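Hello,

Our lab assistant flagged a job as stuck in the queue for most of the afternoon. It eventually completed. Since we weren't sure the result was trustworthy after the delay, we are filing this so someone can double-check. Below is the sequence as submitted and the structure that was eventually returned. Let us know if re-running is recommended.
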Amino acid sequence: MPALPNGVLRAKLAGALPEGSSFTSGPEDVHPALANVTGFGRARFYVWTVTADRSVSGRPAGEFKIQLILPNQSRQARASLEIEGPYTVLLGYSPDYGVFVGWEAPLYRRFAYSRNVQCREELLREARSTGWGVAEPRRVSGAEEVRVAFTPGNLLHYLRTSRAADAEGRKGKWREAFFLAHTPNAETPPPVRSRDLDEYVRKQRGRVTATRLARDGRFSALIKIQYAYACAVCAVQLEIVEGAHIIPVREAGSSDDVWNGVALCPNHHDLFDGSAFLIRPDLEVRVDQERVEYFRANDLAQGLEILTDYDRRRIRAPEFWKRSADLQGRMVRALTRRAAAAGLT
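-- returned structure --
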């Protein structure tokens, strides 16, 4: 499947980095991109497009992948990721889900041309819905690898957590527990005894899910009132309307207050969670045109008008918009942060 251009991948990475970060490599370099990251330090990023894996018949459904190919690498040659020096990060960006996936770079030091590096679709769905998803360990290169998916606003949190896990030598199930323990807005101390490991992972996964569902139910009821039970984008006014978080549930600064929500139908909710469109501080819809072109190039454009027909239209304002300058200001800041992290302005 056609991938996103390197310049687009670089823009997605730049938007996800904290304010004040700077690149020391070329404007379209993503294999690698070198950066000074505010609040983290020097980092080396390898970034590829995450696409559905339809290359081999008989492979389990629901697999997504990146394909490792370095500049000037021939089909017959093996290549290497640079690991020494700046902290090395192996990332994929999913234009289907609007999230990043992080793999363990040291496991891919040497690779053949177009090596597939995979993850499951449910991991992408979890990250799109909440902001943070941790997969169970999966066997690769003689080791148990833990894949993590996250929204752009959680890139810094991922970098810090990954480096801390490496420093502590966390591998396999211990690494899974470590990333679950550092789920944003649901952090708990990781286990210290082997006999507690499996039970901790089970309980932490259940705790994170239960907390999100409870939050979503209360939050959605409040938000629908603010928008007269209608989708703020397409104006459908049915029982299907839901409350969508501007700052995702599993990102720092998320809130269940009314300023952090927009009422959306399920289709626009999923598209908004995946940053296929964002809402500007003036309440204007802004569609990610690079993503639109990606969908068209991959024959995924049927029904695309549900997205493109609303580009540059203003959404319905919440009830508090004109009566509370404080709530309006909070919402404006949340919308600004969300658009910047997604690389849209």
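-- support follow-up --
The delay was a queue issue, not a problem with the job. The result is valid. The mean pLDDT is 94. Residues 211-341 form one domain.
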